[in-house]
Amino acid sequence: MLRPEGRLTDEIVVASGDYVYADEEGYLYFVGRKDDMIKSRGYRVSPHEIESVVRKHLPRIGECAVFSLPNEEIEEEIVLVYGGPRELPRNEILFELKRHFPNYMLPARILHRPEMPRKSLHSREIDKESLRRELLEGI
Fold it and tell me: Does residue 1 carry a pLDDT above 60?
């Protein structure tokens, strides 16, 4: 904690973009991310970067959401959920994404939905948390 006169107390400050908690012994435990960056296989992956490539290079996909799910082996796995009238072959999507990204940035799961959930009734913003909860409940 920073005192008004500028001196640090004996507390530790962690500015990582993560939500953590400390136990009685001072050990820190990861709870989640403050931003939507994905940490997979030791790399930081931007969901926005993957979404923009999908929008630009896969025009048959109407809209998409990229987010992560916990995976003990690789920290977080990347999930791509896309909406549109027709489901595309998974290999077609992966083939295009492989042209733009290294393997660690490729989605482990690619799912189609006829309609994407919205944050509110009149919003155009996709509700990624709703999609994440839906997938976690199905595991």
Answer: no
What does the pLDDT read at residue 32? 61
Question: Taking Cα atoms as reference points, which of 46, 91, 47 lies closest to residue 65?
Answer: 47
Q: What is the pTM of this model?
A: 0.74
- Phi and psi angles of residue 58, each rounded to the nearest 5 degrees, phi first: -130, 70
The β-bridge partners of 66 are 80
Q: Where are the alpha helices (DSSP H) in 10-111?
A: 47-57, 90-98
Query: Above pLDDT 90, what percent of the chain?
Result: 67
Q: How far is CA 99 from the centre of its chain?
A: 21
50 exposed, middle or buried (CB, 10 Å; 0-12, 13-18, 19+)?
Answer: buried
CA distance 101 to 60: 19
Per-residue pLDDT averaged across 95-99, rounded? 97
Q: CB atoms < 10 A from the CB of 80, how many?
A: 24
First-to-final CA distance of the chain: 40
